[in-house]
Amino acid sequence: MKKKAKQRHQSVVRCPYCGALADLRPAAEIYHDDSRDDLLYVCRNYPRCNAYVRVQPGTKQPMGPLANGDLRHLRIRAHRAFDRVWQCGVMTRDAAYRWMADYFCIPLREAHIGQFSEYRCQQLIRKCEDLLWKAGKAS
Ligand SMILES: [Zn+2]
User: Fold this and answer.
1) What is the DSSP letter of 57?
2) Ligand 1 centroid – CA 20 distance (Å)
3) Known Pfam families for this protein (predicted)?
């Protein structure tokens, strides 16, 4: 299991895939969407290295380590699995977030799938599918 990133207060952000520095850039530039007004830390080798991460709203702190396409896709899948848990009524949305935080033994404020590692996403998907299956709500 990966240890939590210790560079929370550093302003220097490196890409975990290629080791290059990451620059703060407007998300509109990366997503080609002028309606975006947020910022991203983007690997200097982008787009050759397809890694970036959002900043925490209102700050210049990255949400976590830079994520490549595979990890971003996995987080979308994990979010979909998690949303099914409360959308099908197994528990409320608030209870589902608490359940997830308890499962990973993390504080509720850290229970954000957008910050999860590949390993944690896979665990969450498995856990959600298991819960839905036991509740007779498996798709
Ligand atoms: Zn990179």
Assistant:
1) T
2) 6
3) DUF3268
The first and second tokens of residue 92, run together, are 């409320």
Distance 43 CA to ligand 1 centre (A): 5
Q: Is 94 exposed, middle or buried (0-12, 13-18, 19+ CB in 10 A)?
A: exposed
User: How many Å lie between the centroid of ligand 1 and the Cα of residue 37?
Assistant: 23
pLDDT, tens digit, for every residue of 44-70? Answer: 999 999 999 999 888 899 988 899 999
Q: What is the dihedral of CA 27, 33, 37, 42, to 10 degrees?
A: 0
Ligand 1 geometric centre to CA of 46 (Å) = 7
pLDDT band at 11 (very low <50, low <70, confident <90, very high): low
Query: What is the SS3 assignment for 133?
Result: helix
Separation of 19 CA from ligand 1 center, angstroms? 6
